[in-house]
Structures are given as structure tokens and as C-alpha cells.
Amino acid sequence: MAYDFPRRTFEPDASDLDAKACKTTTTPEQAAEALRQFVAQSRRQFETDPAWVAARADAQAMGLKPEKVREFKRRHRLPLDQRLSPDACALLLQEIEADQRTAKGKQLARAHALELIAQRATPEAAAAVAAVLPCGAAGPWVSGYEAEAYLLNRVQALTGKRYATAGAACRKAAALAPAAASAAEALKAGRFDRFRRDLFWGVILRLDQLQGPPPADWEAFYSWCQLRAYEGHHTGPSLGDLLAGRVSSGDARGLLQLPKSGPLDPAAIRSAYRAHARHHHPDAGGDRHRFERLSEARDRLLLEVA
Predict the structure, then answer these.
(1) How far apart are CA 197 and CA 209, in angstroms?
(2) CA–CA distance from 12 to each of 7, 9, 19, 20 (Å)?
(3) pLDDT, tens digit (0-9, with 9 covering 90-100), for 36-58
(4) Which of 57, 64, 136, 301 has the fewest CB atoms nearer than 10 Å to its CB?
(5) pTM assigned to the model
(6) Which residues constitute the domain of residue 177?
(7) Are 196 and 133 in contact (CB under 8 A)?
């Protein structure tokens, strides 16, 4: 049986019509005037806000910016709408002076390090470093994450700026040690370009700390260039893994209880998977989500060694 429901029509009320009319009839001059009124109202609120009134008064008395005073109050959990006591003013000035001394000391240390690097990063020294860099799976294995962390940390220490990618950090390293650029170009031929490039520039930017020529033995080389301090940095997930919801290489090794670093072979990966999947299989009363993660970990690691 079919029902014939009456059709309902909706008519906008007067307020809707007025709002639509305002939207369609607003001129650029009216919009500019509304913006001026908004800015003026915000300025009046800023000028009358007790917290900013107190901060401006303290800042004017000490020759500082109001933002600096508010930051100090928040850090020490002081009332924002009250003036600073004489002791608090003295502490703020002491902190500023200490920060300035620290910043000046860091600047001098960076300048001294860069001067030593410029002296020691000769074409001959850079070629010696490039000649002993491990290629492929030969020698003790180090992941690309470790080499990248090694490079990024040193560039940040020398420049005070954190670079988001290893490529940008390498370009900055080349600007800091231009005499090593020719040796870096020679590393581009080969399968493991990025790993060797990051490791090369990380070593070059530590020549102010390293003594003597680079050892030819790879294990001794890693100790000489202080790379072992970055073991474990490769275990973190990459940005691509996080965005895609995939298990990272480091997490995959952890799930299967495989070594955190070093080469793996397919037989070891499959054996570790079987040992854990046996206990977590849903048919045996295990957790389905855990079992799926183990399968993802196996597939991820097999892709790396294939």
C-alpha cells in the first residue's frame, strides 16, 4: 500500500533573508570598516587587560619586552595580573644575563669548531674519509637512520638550526666545508649513495674533534668517528610509516625479537615469525590484532632483505 505524504515546503524566515541580504550587499568599504572596528576593539582589550597592563609596566621599568615578562611569570607560576616584586625582577635580569652568556659561549664554540673544520677538511683528508667508507653490506652493518641522525645532530650543533631532511643538512655541510665537496661527488656512484653521503658529511663536520687519519678497519672507523653513540636511532618509525599506519623497521624487529641492528636473512625472519605466531594465532586463543602485527612485521623485514 502506498502512502501519499503531503509535500512540505520550507520558506526562509525574515532573519535568514536579512542575513543573506547582508552577505550579498556588503561592499569592500563596509568590510574594511568592520575590520578596523575589530582591530580597534582588540587593541582596547589588549590595553585594558590587567595581565598585559602589569607586564608592560614591569617591562618598561626594566627595559624589556612585555612578552619576556609574561614568559617569566608563566615559567615561575606567578600571577599574570600582578606586578613583579623586587626579588622577582632581580631574578629575571639574572636569568636573562645567564642566557646571554650561554648563547655567547655557544656562538664562540661554534665559530672555533668551524674554523678547525675549515683547516682540517682539506681535499686530501676528505678523500681519505671517502676511501674507507663501507659500501653495501660489507663490514659491520649500520642503518641509514643512524647515519642520518649522526649527520643531523652535528649540523644542528654547528649551526643552532635543526634541519628536517638529510639532503638539506648535506647541502649545509657542503657550504661549511666546501673543500670536501669533490670527495662527496665521488661517492655518488654506487648502490648505497644516501647512507655513504650522510656518513661522509657527518664525519667531515666532526674533524674538529677527531684525531689522526681514518682507520681502514670498519669497526675501528665507527669507533674513531663516534658513530656508535647513535646506535638505536634507526628504531624509530619513519614519517611515511606513521602516516600510512605501517609497522616500522625497528618496530618489526622488536615484535619478532630480532637484533636491533645488523643484517638479517629470510630464514631467520620466518623462523622468528613462526615461533611467535604459534602463540598468538586466533585459532589458538591468541589476539588477532597482535597476530596481524606479527604478519606485517614479517612482510616488512622480508622486503628489506629481498
Answers:
(1) 20
(2) 16, 10, 11, 10
(3) 888 888 777 777 888 889 999 99
(4) 136
(5) 0.54
(6) 121-234
(7) yes
